[in-house]
Amino acid sequence: MAKISKDLAVGTLHPRENLYIAGTIGAINAEVMTACDGCSSFSLDMRGTAVLTVEVSGTVDGTNWVPIPVRPVNLAAVAYLATVVYPAGGGVWTGVCGGFRLIRARCTAYTSGSVVATLSASTAILDQTLQGMVTTGIATVTATIGLTATCTIPNPGVGLRNYVTSIEVNRFAGAALVAAATPVLVTTTNFPVGLTFSVPADAALQGTIATIREDFAFPIASAAQNTATTVVGPATTNVIWRITAGYYVAP
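and the corresponding structure tokens:
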């Protein structure tokens, strides 16, 4: 049902309702665009057979465009994407457009084919209830004995960060370990204030394992957008590292 809002500039009433635009995207820079005044969220539906990448962006002044992260609604994920790498069979993606004057879906990389793209701006608020509650990605690494282990959470893309929900560090004794006077430090990159873990440096029999695990009630946001995040176990004599991190991607 349409809603009525008042234009404070001229004192007239306007219907507030969902706004739609549909068109064909089949070439580089091909786009569909719609106004989104008074709208809160949007959805993008694409159908067809093609190999291409689409970026959704918004503008306030009608000239400068800012990428808007989108989230697939017909896949088992709640993580955001910087761009849509179009899959066979089509799909639907959603995002937030509140505060923008116009939104568009534009082809930024093209190989072949075409899709029918429908862009809808809605007054409805996007359901974010699962955001921050579901771990949608796992990064893990197992090193060779005595060598460094770097667990890398991939670059999330433009305008996005990694949100880390858990970290587990396993120190396996590939041979007998000799006690040391200081702990072994497992370091990180792209975390706030240089997050570091102290791993025991005790004597241990071959085949034993020591585990440190952190499950974060409030996920840790990576310090920088568009940057990979790492957890690093240093080269340690007779040690085999296994490091695992749970995460999701969001603005």
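(Above: one complete record from the training split.) The mean pLDDT is 88.
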